[in-house]
Structures are given as structure tokens and as C-alpha cells.
Amino acid sequence: MPLDTVARIEAPEQLHFDHHVVGPWRRFNAYLIDTLIRGFILFILTLTSGLTFGAETGALLLLFFTLEWGWFVFFETLFNGQSPGKRALKLRVVKGDGRPLRFGDAVLRNLLRAADILPLGYCVGGVVSAFDPRFRRLGDLVADTMVVSIQAGLAYEPLKLDPPPTRQELEGLPARPDLRPEELMAIERLLRRAEQLNPHRRQELARLLTPRLTERLGLEPTDDPERRLALLWFLAQGEPR
Length: 241
Fold this sequence. Notes:
Layout: E1 5-10, E2 16-21, H1 24-49, H2 57-78, H3 84-88, E3 91-95, H4 103-111, H5 113-116, H6 123-130, H7 138-143, E4 145-149, H8 167-170, H9 181-192, H10 199-217, H11 225-236
Antiparallel strand pairs: 1-2, 2-4, 3-4
């Protein structure tokens, strides 16, 4: 992918994950798609509401501002960092450490568009991203976000718990463990990499995370931390007991 690069993220559990950071050209294309969609919406709303470029210019400017600023905040917050343009090109906004984008992050990165767009055509944002190793514009730097590519190889098959849990294993475990998003992500990535790691390494990585979860959830210690993590992950997904 031209002008793309790889950002290696180290999770607290000492797991490393590669994210393909997107270059300015693909980001521009995604923004262009969003612009065309918003332009069409603005055109339709103008026709149906009877607004003209006369006395109602203020209303048109307000509508344009709402679409320009609120569009990305709305979609990036509710659709996991993806506006329609990013979704079409398989791009996503994430935090600098790889975690999912949150509402405050989306608001902050998009508020700074007003600075990135200066003086015309995103000149400031283009210059800033050209000197950043992750191609981040000013809004990304302030909000600690980056735009990454969703690789086709990351479309995993659903995980399966093999062997199925026994009644004895489920005793003492909550029906729906309160796992945080970053904990769910770390456990899932460990489970998906299980076949690539030898048993000793899998247990070593599981022991880095299990004690903290065991203490926070008020569980009894376990001799098989890898199995405990798998059980907690599946229960947190709403799997039947």
C-alpha cells in the first residue's frame, strides 16, 4: 500500500500487534467520498426546505457546519471509528494504542479540523501529517488517534471454546463478567494466536493478565489461567452457561 506504514503497538500484557497506518492519499479519497455524500444530502435538504442563497444564507451555513463537523463525530462514535467514506475504503480511526475510539476522542479530533483545513484545502493538516511517522494531522495528534487499514486477513472466524465448559469450571464465575474493552481485546487476541504459540508461552502470557482479573472480579485463583481467560471471554460475550 503506497505511503502506508506499520505501527507496532505493545499491549500492557506484553503482546505486540501491528496496525497498518493509512497514508494521506487514501485518507483523502475517504474524505472525498464523505464530502460527496454530504454534498448530496445538503442539496436535497436545500431543495425540500425551499432554502435559497438569499435571506436564508445563515441557515444554509448552519446546516453546512452541522454536516461538516457532526458527520464525522456521529459516525466515528457509533460505527467504531468509521464514517461512510472510511467504511467504503476499509479504514478506521483508533486510539494511538490501538484501542477503539470514544466519543470524546471523536469530538476532539474533529474540532481541530478547523485548524487542519487552514488556510485552504487542509494545508496545515497535510504539512503536519507529512512530518509525522503515523501520518497524523493536527487533530489526530491532539486526540491521540490514527487512521488504520482494516486488513482482509483480520476477518477472523468466530472463536469456539473447545472443549465446552463443564459445570465445575463455571462454578464461582459470574454469568456476565464485567470485562473492560481493552481486556476483552487482549484476551481475544491471545485466544486467536493460541495456535501460533507454544503451550509454555501461552500460559506465560495468560498469567500476566489473569491475576489482575481474578482480583478485580473477586474470583478464586486458578491453576489454568489460559482456560480461565477463555471462559471469562465467552461468558462476557453472552455465551450460554
